[in-house]
Amino acid sequence: MSATHPPAALLLDWYARQKRTLPWRREADPYCIWLSEVMLQQTTVAAVAPRYARFLARFPDVAALAAAQWEDVAAEWAGLGYYARARNLHAAARAVAAAGGFPRHAEGLRALPGIGAYTAAAIAAIAYGEPLVPADGNVERVAARLFALTEPLPGAKAELARLAQGFMAQPAAAAAPGDFAQALFDLGATICTPKNPTCALCPWMAGCAARQQGIAAELPRKAPKRARGLLHGTHFLLRDAMGRVGVRSRPASGLFGGMLELPGTPWRDSPWPEAEAMAHAPLAGVNWRRVEGEARHQLTHRDLVLQLYAGQVRVLPEHLAPLSAERDLPSAMRKLLRLGG
After folding, report:
1. pTM for this one?
2. Among residues 288, 286, 262, which one has the least CA distance to residue 274?
3. Which residues contact 238 (CB under 8 A, 6 or more apart)?
4. Domain ends where: 191, 218, 245?
5. What is the mean pLDDT of the chain?
6. Which residues of 250-261 are buried (b: 16+ CB within 10 A; e: fewer)?
7. Domain boundary among 218, 250, 266
8. Which domain holds residue 271?
9. Predicted local distance difference test score (pLDDT) of residue 2
10. For 231-239, what is the mean pLDDT?
């Protein structure tokens, strides 16, 4: 493995010509950068862009987000997945508002709820010019190929982060750490892609060790994945005479914490037999009808497998609230709602 870093200036020149136009790049506002980075975790740019604009319109600054009720934040986040992000976002906003502003260094940012090493480095580099290279998946892929690092992920993460940070020894990168970080993001997203990298268009083509060895497309290597587990649940779609759907809030902690759901069983490793599931029905005496099929939803390490029963009453019980809009539900619940027709 070569530890020779190609010229940062070449990448910055490429970025000046080819950078993506993204809404969170219009200004170096730490709130906007933070919000975009949290939204982009496990989510694509295409999916985030419209939701980012909508979220920002509702909560235009950290003070507005801190003052908001959790139910409003949860409703605006619905459908973006990984809902612990929204809880941490809200908690961190309140911490920032109480402190009178964002910490100006990565170390202070890391003390906020939900902000890890990568997000702290991204905010610090882009908003405050701290000479850091935030190592996300794009940056790890670029570094693995540049230096032909064949150790598989996740074990290689620390070494890839060290190699990426090495660019800050070059004056061009240290003078513009925010632009350099975003240039790396764009290089990984548009040129040094996971499959079929477009090496001929890469500004660092000549200095890429993996390209020289003919192994660029093979890197970064990954350790074998563990088999995905299953979580099973049964939920109940209860409508009133006006067709309104009854929903409730999930517990504040755990999966989809604080989000709205169709009432149902807890989620567990084994399926729920009908008689056992019915003990969790939101209302007794309803002629519950088993809906054919199931709703599946992919979590980080497991898949949700959800069954559905449907029923109707004249008036929803007091412990269920009528659903205002489908968009207020997390994705797994939307799938159940559509399964119920």
Report:
1. 0.79
2. 288
3. 245, 246, 262, 263, 282, 283, 286, 310, 311, 312, 313, 316, 320
4. 218
5. 94
6. beeeebbbbbbb
7. 218
8. 229-339
9. 41
10. 97
Hey, is 242 helix, strand or coil? coil
Q: Give how far the C-alpha of residue 5 lies from the chain's centroid of Cα atoms, to the nearest Å.
A: 30
Tokens of residue 163, six digits: 């190699």
Same domain assignment for residues 21 and 71: yes
The answer to whether the beta carbons of residues 313 and 286 sit under 8 Å apart is: yes
- Is 149:208 a contact under the CB 8 Å cutoff? no
Cite the DSSP H helix spans in the chain: 8-18, 30-40, 45-58, 62-67, 70-77, 84-99, 106-110, 117-128, 137-146, 157-165, 171-175, 177-190, 209-213, 274-277, 331-339
Both structure tokens of 110: 């890391």
Residue located via tokens 């604009």: 53
Active-site residues: which are they? 37
Rounded to whole angstroms, the Cα distance separating 306 from 184 reads 40
Cis peptide before 154 (omega within 30 of 0): yes
Segments in 170-258 forming alpha helices (H): 171-175, 177-190, 209-213
The CATH number linked to 30 is 1.10.340.30
pLDDT tens digits for range 183-224: 999 999 999 999 999 999 999 999 999 999 999 999 999 998
- Residue type, position 142, single letter: V
Please give the structure tokens belonging to residue 172: 């061009």
